[in-house]
Amino acid sequence: MPLNSDTPIILAIETSCDDTAAAVLYNGKMLANIVATQKIHEQYGGVIPELASRAHQQNIVPVVQAALDKAGKTISELSAIAYTQGPGLIGSLLVGAQFAKGLSLALNIPTIGVNHLHAHIGAHYLNEYPPKFPFLCLLVSGGHTQIVKVNSHLEMEIIGSTIDDAAGEAFDKAAKMIGLPYPGGPLIDQYAMLGNPLAYPFPIAKLAGYDYSFSGLKTSILYFLQKRRTLDVHFIENNRNDICASIRYTIIKTLLQTLERAADDLNIQEIGIAGGVSANSLLRDELTKLGIKKQWKTHIPAFEYCTDNAGMIGILGHYQYLSGDFANINAKPFARGH
What is the pLDDT of residues 199-252, one digit of tens each? Predict the structure, then answer.
């Protein structure tokens, strides 16, 4: 297959969950980043895998075309196609992977299978001033919570992770207990801005090493709400802002205290955050404050690169392209990953 390593033009496709996304990058620079969000899942309180994969089939062609049009490029100019290989919903992953492979065969260009979690971290490479290696990245999403030591563009080492639930899941499950619609994490953030974060103290799990645990916090919130509602049936409605503020404060404090300990132990002062929860306003503010206190150089992604998007797939795909890391055309996407 023909390669142009000097100025590669890469089409990136992201279909790991319920967002159909496509991006076009020229020599590592973003030209277009298009996302089509599926609203149908809101009525079910969560993502329905079968509906997600069907929606991807409907959206992928127009989304890819929109990205090419915005970038001012045609498919004949592409050097490679990067796609999300996993982790994610297997049906959703298959749509993106098979589309990428079919197009690559038609154009006689290579495909690049990209790890979705690594790509969230790689979103930092899109910044004008990316982190210097090595740096620590707190990767926080609905399905994962990890502290990753990033040694190079493609070399990443997990040094801590959740032993049960992810921080994003804790946000969403707490929101459901409060009666907020899906997705509830961003709504907790909004209500919390109006509340007292110290109104209701919740436990913070302290584990050995740099691991996390949020299952105990979810149980604590459940029992707390049940007890208070037996005394006042309108307790949640009358105290929603304070409840949300207290939950948000506990989760963010849990995340940052372990990150701080890891940074101190490893003597690393380049610190970043990534993943959907990195859009949380308190996490962004508190990381900035902690960075000033610790004299860190903190890196916070733009909002458009926090949630699932193809730009992050494309930039990691760019570096995989330069290293010659191409996918086997017969490779299958994986529902699970590290």
Answer: 999 999 989 899 999 999 999 999 999 999 999 999 999 999 999 999 999 999
Could you tell me if residue 141 is inside a domain?
Answer: yes
Q: Could you tell me if 203 and 217 are in contact, meaning their C-beta atoms sit under 8 angstroms apart? A: yes
Spatial distance between the Cα atoms of 242 and 199, rounded to a whole number of angstroms: 6
Cα(17)–Cα(48) distance, integer angstroms: 9
Question: Whole-structure pTM over 0.70, yes or no?
Answer: yes
Give the orientation angle of helix 167-178 with respect to helix 185-192, to 10 degrees.
70
> Is position 335 within any domain?
no
pLDDT the model gives residue 338: 37
Share of the chain above pLDDT 90, in %: 87
Is residue 68 within 8 A of residue 11, CB to CB? The reply is yes
Q: Are 167 and 277 in contact (CB under 8 A)?
A: yes
Are 117 and 138 contained in the same domain? no
Beta carbons within 10 angstroms of residue 261's beta carbon: 15
In the beta sheet, which residues pair with residue 20? 36
Which parts of 212-318 are beta strand (E)?
270-274, 297-299
